[in-house]
Task: structure prediction
Amino acid sequence: MCSATAATPLFSTDHHLPKSFTRLCKPFHSRVPTSLTFHSSPPTFFVRATVVKWRSPKQTLPPNSDTGFQKKALYLESIGIDPFSLLESHPMLITASLNDIKSTVEYITAMDFSAIEFSRMVGMCPAILTTKVSDIIPVFTFLHREVRVSSSKIKHVINRRPRLIICNVDKQLRPTMYFLQSIGIEEVNKHTDLLSCSVEDKFMPRIEYFENIGFSRRDVTSMFRRFPQLFCCSIKNSYEPKYNYFVVEMGRDLKEVKEFPQFFSYSLENRIKPRHKRCVEMGVCFPLPLLLKSSEVKFQNRLEAFVNSSTPLETSPLWCAGLHNY
Result:
């Protein structure tokens, strides 16, 4: 058992917790182990450390690192972050410097991120904790000066895509920005979540997919320029099944997809198929925007209106008359 001896204060006078975290601070209690040494009959307060991932026999602490990790665990818990849940996905936390972690936390929270927001960011991207301030500063500078993200929107951008914080500006962020601009996406500050994506591994395979099914490079570029979030759709789970359904079941012209690439962002099972089938049953053919963009109520009302009136043929100019109303 552990003896109740006086402990050295964890936070020195020159390190202060961010104000937004003070409500989460709590006395350190027995559920945090004072040692990571394992016993044949572990006391109750060892259960948490045992369950988390000392499950992997290959994951062991470096020699004499018990005290260092204990201090990091106590510090992270004091600001509302469970260190043990992060170890499995980010084992580098074990060897990271406590001072570097504190500096990173203090730098980011100084930008007015709340305790809940910061905890969520770390949960989505644990590597934030082990990224040094010297590597983070260039990211914020790049977003502000080159991407033209205003100071008031920086927080929103990071909350939406925390991974941006750990990206290298020269090797990742700037090349991606140049690529997006090269295909005509001038307002990159409206699509900052794409900056953390790889041009070679993510963007090019998607462009090549559309070229392989018959679109010209010019048409493909136009599609991604019109709808940049098309880069975020999965080739296997989105492009392929929706394209096959569009061609085989719907029998539509590919020109429609070129003009409305948002088609690939809608659920095949919950939106595309049900609405197409209802249109077929009633003998109605809507252009893609009318078929998919409207709410369920508006779609049903429009469907009934067309059924109860003379429906224009697909060759009629009136067939796309409602296109600009949605």
User: Anything to note?
Assistant: The radius of gyration is 27 Å. Confidence is low (pLDDT under 50) at residues 1-66, 320-326. Residues 43 and 172 are 47 Å apart (CA to CA). The longest helix spans residues 235-249.
